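Predict both folds.
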Amino acid sequence: MGLLSKPEVVECSAKDLIGEYVGQTAPKTTKQLELGLGKVLFIDEAYRLGEGPFAIEAANELVDIMTKPKFQGKLIVILAGYDEDMDRLMTVNRGLASRFSEEIFFPPLNPQQSLNLLTAGLQKKEIYLEGADDKNSKSHKDIINLLEKLTSLQSWGNARDIQTLTKTMMGKVFANLTEKSHHLVLPAIVATEVLQEMLNRRLKSEINTSQLPQKAESLLRTQTFDPIRSQAPTAATTTIQTTTPTVQEPLEEDLDSDENFDTVPRDANVSDETWAQLQLAKQAAATEAQRSAQEILEFEQAVKAVEAQRESLRRAEEANRVEADAARRRLEEERIAEARRRLAEERAQAALEAAMKREREKMQRELEARRRLRKMGVCVQGYRWVKVGGGWQCEAGGHFVSDGEIERFGG
C-alpha cells in the first residue's frame, strides 16, 4: 500500500519500554519506537503500561513521542493484550484512546470450536477421537460439557490449552499402543479423563487464589440487586443516560435447603470414586458462583472508573476554560474520548445483560429439574440433588438420574 518503507514487524513487550530506575523509561521508549521507524511496532502485553509509576510514565512518553515529526505517520504501532486489561490501560492517559482509535477484538473459542481444533490436532497424527463427529452421542455431549466448563474459566488459554490437551491425549494413545497401527483411536473415556484432570487442576487453582468466596456467595444469594449504580455525567458537549439492568426475583425459593449441605452422610453403598466425583461437582458449583459474582464486581468497578474519569475531565475543563485555544483542543479530545467511553459502556451493559440472562435461564432450568426430581421421588430421604455431568445425583451419592430421564418424566 506504500504506507511503510519496509514490510517488517518489530516485536517487543511492554517491559522493553519500562525502565527500572528514574530516568530510564523515556530513553527505552524512544529506542523502541526508533527500531520501529518505517515498520510495524508490535507491543505485546501492553496492559503492563498501566501498572506502576514507571509503566505509566512509559505510556505518557508513548503518547508524546507519537506526535513528534520524527515519528508521526512514519510507523504503525500495535498494542496487544487482554480485552479488559486494555480498556483499563486506555484510562491511564486520555491521549492513548485518540492515538489508538482502531480496535480489533478476538473472541475466545467456544466449546465446539475448541473441539474442532482438538480433533484437527489429533488428526495430524492420524488419531481419531471416538464420538467427536456424532453430536447426538453421549461421548460428544460429555466432551462438549467439559470443554464448556473449561472455556468459562478465567484461566482458560484457548489454542494454547488445546495444544496442551492434544499433547496429553496423544501421549495416552501412544502409551497404550500394543502394536503398530495406521488407525489409532482415542477412546472417548480417555479424552474425558484428560479434560476432567485439567478442569480439576484449574478449579483447585482458582479456589486457592480466590479472594472473594464470602462476597460471591452473598451476592448470588441476594434476590434483587443493582450491579451498576452509575449516574449520567454532565459534560461540555454530551450527556449519556445509562439504563441499569437488574436481576429479577427468582421464580420461587430453592426447593431444597442449604442447611447441612456439606455434612450429609455418605451412603454405605457409594464407592470412593463416586463420592470423590460428587465432591468435585460441589466444588465446581461453588467456583461457578464465585466466578459469576467476580464478573459482576468487575463490571461495577469499570463503570466507577468511567465516572471518576468523567469527573476529572469536567474539573479540568472548568479550570482551563479561560484559554480559548486550549479549550478547543480539549473539546476535540473529549469528543474522541466520549465516543470510546460510550462504546465501553455499551459493551459493559450488553455483557452484563447477557450474563444476567444466562443466570436467569440457568436458574429456571435447575428449578424445573428439581421439581421433576422431587415428583419422581427417587431419593426417599429427600436429600439435596447435585448437578453431576449429564444428570443429577443426590447428595448422599446413592441415587443418580440422567438429564434425559428428567426430560422424559416432564414430557
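Second protein follows, with its predicted C-alpha cells after the sequence.
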Amino acid sequence: MAVNRAPLIARSEVCSSGNDWRRSLANAVRDPDELIDLLDLPETCRLPARQAAGLFPLIVPRSYLARMQPADPQDPLLRQVLPLEREGDHRPGFITDAVGDGQSRREPGLLQKYQGRALMVATGACAIHCRYCFRRHYPYGDEPRRIDDWEPAFRALAADSSLREIILSGGDPFILADARLEVLFHRLAGIEHLSRLRIHTRLPIVLPDRITDELIRLLTTYRLRPIVVVHANHPHEIAGECAEALRRLVGSGMTVLNQSVLLRGINDSADALAALSERLIDLGVVPYYLHQLDRVAGTAHFEVPVEQGRLLIEELRRRLPGYAVPSYVREVPGEPHKIPLV
C-alpha cells in the first residue's frame, strides 16, 4: 500500500524555514515501523528491523529521510540506517573495539593514538545511528557528562606540551548545545601549546540546520584554528540543505574535509565515489579519507574486499584530478598512523 509522504516533506521544510535544529532532532524517526511506513518499504523489512534496532537503536532525521527514494530497500542512504537481521551475525575477526579505543584511553573521555594530537569523546549522542558505526559498542556511560568531570582530561592536555591539536569526537560534538561547546572551546583555547581544534561531525550532512550563525561564530571566535571533518558516503547526501550547510562552513574560512567509509551496496562503485568527490570539491570540501570498514561486531555485511577498494581508487585516479581522490586507509590499533592501502 502506498504511503503519503507529505508529513516527511513538510517536516523537512519546517526544519529549513525555522532553522530550529533542536526541533529537527526531537522529531527524528526512532521507530522502525515508522521508518518502514514513511518510505513504503516491503513488509519483509519490518520484523528484522525491529529486532536489529533492539541491538542498536534507530535514529534518523526526517530531512535525511527526504533524500531517500521511497519503496526502494536498496537506496544507498537508507542502507546506511536501516536495521538488518545480519547485525546479529557473529563473524570471526569482528569485535566490539576494532580501533583500539580502550587501549588508547589516557583519562576519562580522553584518547591518544597518534603523536601530537589527542581526542576527546565529547558526547555519546548522535543525530543518526549509522549501522556500520565503529563506536556502536563504545562504553559512553563511563565517560564525562558534566563539565567538572572533564578536569582530569584538561589537566592531562595542559601537562603535555607535545600536543598541537585536539580532536572533538563522539558521538557527535555538534549535538551539544552552543553553551556547552563554548565552555569546551574556551578551556581548550586556554592551553597555550594547542594550536588547532578539529571536530569530527556528521551533522552538517544529516541535520544541516545545526549549522547556524551562532555555531559558526563560536568556531571562529577562539584562537585555535578550526578544522571541520564531515562524513558523507554517497553523492545523494550532498544536496539541498546539506550543500548549503557545507557552503556556509567553507565560506566562513574554515578548513572542511570529508571522510567516507567504503560500504558494500552503498558506495562500492567508481561512479558513486567519483560523483561524491565532484560534489564535495565543487563546494570547497576536500575529499580526505576513504576508510576501509572497521571490523566492528555487527557490521560484517558492509565489508568490501581491500583489493576491490584498490581498484576503485585506481579508477578514481583515471577520472579525477589528484586533489579529488581521497586517501584509502585502514586504522590498525597500536600503529602510529592510518595505514595506506594503496
